């Protein structure tokens, strides 16, 4: 059986569409605690809320931005600053669903304790926040570093133009790091990086492509507000999350299939 044919067969065998819908539901529940928690931390850093919105706006469909911005502006950040654990717990629900989906892809039972699984989800959520913060801070400090180096080099315009072009690669790099961490730590399976990088690269490229195509479709052709009224933004957000869930699960299935096809000793589940 060809790789693509077997990949499609495994995706439907492991209930990929249903798992994607489950991920979309938990992503929706997790998004706003995650974003409010992120913005609470950003209050202590030289980063503006608009930078976070801009990072999301690169890929999010247009109709979803009003929903996200309204929720972020009305969220109780003061409460979450005193309840970081509660915010992280809520935000980690999506990661917890990903753990279950990846275990299904590798066809392994979850024998880690509830506390260990939750702790893994919490740590991955915190790692995602840290990675996003680094991505947001790079342009802030990068501009100062770029000006400093450009003045030393004596060709500021040329250097700054190259630096600006380089910054376009920050978002895909952040996604690649996040997906690699997910595929490595989330499943109850001991893996090496060579078995998680292909899926991480595929998920990164697939997610960016699907997000941009769906965003173009929503802005140019679809009119969900006419059909669903004020719920149009939520519907678009859920469809985007559903497509994102598909890309994440497909990346996991790619890694699991590559792992299965390699002739290597059977590895023990994580204890």
UniProtKB/TrEMBL annotation:
It is found in: Cell membrane. It is a multi-pass membrane protein. Its main location: membrane. The chain crosses the membrane at residues 23-45, 122-145, 165-186, 195-218, 230-252. One of its GO terms (cellular component) is plasma membrane. Pfam families: Virul_fac_BrkB. Keywords: Cell membrane, Membrane, Transmembrane, Transmembrane helix. This is YihY family inner membrane protein. It comes from Bacillus paralicheniformis. The lineage of its organism: Bacteria, Bacillati, Bacillota, Bacilli, Bacillales.
């Amino acid at each position: 059986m060809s790789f693509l044919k077997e990949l499609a067969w495994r995706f439907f065998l492991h209930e990929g569409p249903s798992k994607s819908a489950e991920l979309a539901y938990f992503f929706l529940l997790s998004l706003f605690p995650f974003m409010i928690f992120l913005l609470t931390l950003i209050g202590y850093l030289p980063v503006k809320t608009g930078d976070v919105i801009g990072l999301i706006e690169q890929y999010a469909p247009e109709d979803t931005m009003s929903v996200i911005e309204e929720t972020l502006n009305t969220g109780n950040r003061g409460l979450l600053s005193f309840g970081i654990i509660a915010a992280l717990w809520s935000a980690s629900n999506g990661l917890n669903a990903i753990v279950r989906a990846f275990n299904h892809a590798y066809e392994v039972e979850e024998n880690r304790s509830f506390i260990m699984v939750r702790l893994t989800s919490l740590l991955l959520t915190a790692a995602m926040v840290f990675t996003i913060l680094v991505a947001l801070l790079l342009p802030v400090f990068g501009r100062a570093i770029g000006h400093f180096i450009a003045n030393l080099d004596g060709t500021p315009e040329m250097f700054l133009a190259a630096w600006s072009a380089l910054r376009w690669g920050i978002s895909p790099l952040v996604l690649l790091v996040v997906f690699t961490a997910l595929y490595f730590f989330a499943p109850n399976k001991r893996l090496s990086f060579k078995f998680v990088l292909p899926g991480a690269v595929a998920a990164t490229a697939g997610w960016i492509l699907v997000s941009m195509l769906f965003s173009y479709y929503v802005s140019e052709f679809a009119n969900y507000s006419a059909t669903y009224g004020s719920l149009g933004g939520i519907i678009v957000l859920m469809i985007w999350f559903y497509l994102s869930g598909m890309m994440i699960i497909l990346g996991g299935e790619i890694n699991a299939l590559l792992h299965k096809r390699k002739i290597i000793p059977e590895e023990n589940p994580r204890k």
